[in-house]
């Protein structure tokens, strides 16, 4: 008699076919339905009105995930032509005009249908801080002019304001740690060292600082469920352009007709007007009486003397706290890694000295060889570099090393903890991103709920469950399996 295979019974065949169709349908629906939707983005724009120039930054983030760290990124930056807005004190309307090209650029970069919901902020830093000290009415007029200009843009203008030094330092620290994904994960934070043209900031978390000593240097944050007690200080007049004024003022106190400056290359020769040099609140009270109209600024290229002149602009004589950096300012013990950006990066990158594993002594030696190089040779070697920047790298490099070691107390051991950086994951290091994250409430105080599975994880789980169900189905049909008995089944 012919053996009949139990798998060939109509019921079994129907169950198997339905099972397979159901499984295929389940996987297909799971994969198709969970495919990420076409990504929609939101945008934010911040104008950094610095002392030397203004820059516009565009940030974007996925529309659904405002609250997730590491998701906001810089997509574009635009450098405003001309000087910083504080330079337009005598013709404020020009400050507003100067921003137009970058605003036009932003209009092309941000999708038109998002324009009216895109917040636009302008934050001014030390250049405007100095102008407001010098002439508060001129500073108000400059703010009015930029506000009038930005209100005409199609973006949602949220105002132009002067940032305090403390805010500038703290937002720079937020930016660096946000981009490094250290805040959400509650990791040890990175300190921030920012060197601008008119001021410089140092911000870090130190275990031996709870804010009780010198409370004005303390900023507290609760971010993603973690509390931070940040130490921050901004030194007005210690940005690299104002620091250069301080050293030149130091060398021209007797009102000479010429000076031999150890921080400029041998053969450097420029005429400087006394009134220009002393036209800043950082030095205006020290303008020598009866000085001639101009002096000749000659380079000498002597590194050790340059270090002495630069050191002389720091005051180490008084400290009413347990410890100080300089000028009587409290500073707790340095702790952790540091990111040094803005002019720290421009200068050390030009000098090929961003590698902090090079011993400090070797760094100093290389800088002194550079400073001693004649000005003609320097110009020949770098025909494409702006002469103003080129002339100042010897001074700027010496200033940076002096500020870090004598000012902030970095040692040969702690110097390698510094990383000279320009960008982190494509976004510029600076206060602007931290400022926008704060104003848009994009960093929550408490840790967000654990995120949903990513698409690939979801598909994998559905596939595994489906395979298991399939195996289960096969086993549930066991009664219909062919028996392994020697006796043939007779129907
Ligand atoms: N070497 C060099 N210096 C720069 C560059 N951009 C800006 N600087 C200088 O670096 C300093 C700081 O600039 P920035 O970070 O824009 O500071 P701010 O203008 O004070 O906000 C100023 O002295 C600028 O003149 C650059 O591309 N190369």
What does this protein look like?
This protein is of the alpha/beta class and 491 residues long. The chain has three domains: 56 residues; 126 residues, Nucleotidyltransferase, domain 5 (2-Layer Sandwich), CATH 3.30.420.40; 181 residues, Nucleotidyltransferase, domain 5. Helices cover 38% and strands 19% of the residues. It is built from 15 helices and 16 strands. The strands form four sheets. It has a six-stranded mixed beta sheet. Strands 3-2-1-4-5 form a five-stranded mixed beta sheet, with helices on both faces. A hairpin with a 2-residue loop joins strand 8 and strand 9. Helix 1 runs antiparallel to helix 15, helix 10 crosses helix 13 and helix 11 runs antiparallel to helix 13. The mean pLDDT is 91. The structure holds guanosine-5'-diphosphate. Guanosine-5'-diphosphate binds next to helix 7 and helix 10. Its cofactor is Ca(2+); Mg(2+).
